Amino acid sequence: MMPEATEKQVVVRSDPDRIARAVARRLLSRIAKRVVEGKLAHISLTGGSMGGRVLAAVAQNPRCHEVDWSLVHFWWSDERFVPRGSADRNDAEAFTALLDRIPVPAENVHTMAASDDGLSIEDAAAAYEAELARFADPSVGAWPSFDVCFLGVGPDAHIASLFPDRGEIQVTDRAALAVRDAPKPPSERITVTRPVINSAKRVWLVLVGPDKASVLGLALAGASYQSVPAAGAKGRKRTVFFVDEAAAAKVPVELIDSDY
Asked: Which residues of the chain have pLDDT under 50?
């Protein structure tokens, strides 16, 4: 029996490359269903090795060239506040893996400000809030309702730049925040807040490797999002954990969705 749309689903593939290809296929299918009807598709990207690997798999998929990319808008759930073009920025890998390889209009790619753009980190966060508000879906808030929000998950269970047991995870009256003294370098970052993530139609979390097995278990068990931020990520229609066999080592077989 398939889970209800609001329940958390776990999709397992044998290794990271197969996970990336599976996620890429689903992303292209989801985007195609939107744009074929002339609707905009808003996609929130993530950083990390799997974020780039998924986007590279999108670029390599034959269906990539069938998409009307003029109707697709790309956003980020967080960014490192370092100079533009730095390899530490999440958007750098996204451009290399996909965005420079597709005909997406520059105005559809909504990057966060860099440390050399002439803004303080607080002003940079406010500027991203204003940019989100330009495409606001009033039914969810002062931001767009993402069709898909990708999230990587750190070994400490952080998502975006929402780290365990810090104040940012509790903020509900802002769309984006400056993060200082982050426990993972670079220490200065910008992040969207949990309400923005959870207003997405679909939240897709990608976890690979044995060091993510305990985090996955806690997220599925309904741990407190204050201490396990990944447990608090939930899409309005679907919440899917795409994991490799190493990360799925402790997942009960009944929680694995073999059909999705």
From this structure: 1-5
One-character DSSP codes across 111-156: PPPPTTSS--HHHHHHHHHHHHHHT--TTT-SS---SEEEEE--TT
Is the distance from CB of 183 to CB of 237 less than 8 angstroms? no
Assigned token pair, 234: 């939930």
**Quick one: how far is CA 75 from the chain centroid?**
9
Count how many residues are written for the chain. 260
Q: How many CA atoms lie within 13 A of 5 on its CB side?
A: 6
Burial 198-207 (b: 16+ CB within 10 A, else e): bbbbbbbbbb
Residue with tokens 């993402």: 146
3-state secondary structure of 172: coil
Q: How far apart are the first and last CA of the chain?
A: 12
* Joined tokens for residue 27: 């992303």
Tens-place pLDDT, residues 86-137:
999 999 999 999 999 999 999 999 999 999 999 999 999 999 999 999 999 9
**pTM for this one?**
0.95
Residues 6+ apart with CB under 8 A from 205: 150, 151, 152, 153, 159, 219, 230, 233, 239, 240, 241, 242
Only one residue has tokens 């039914």, namely 139
**C-alpha–C-alpha distance, residues 110 and 257, integer Å:** 33
Angle made by CA atoms 61, 64, 65, in degrees to the nearest 5: 120
How far apart CA 87 and CA 211 sit, in angstroms, is: 24
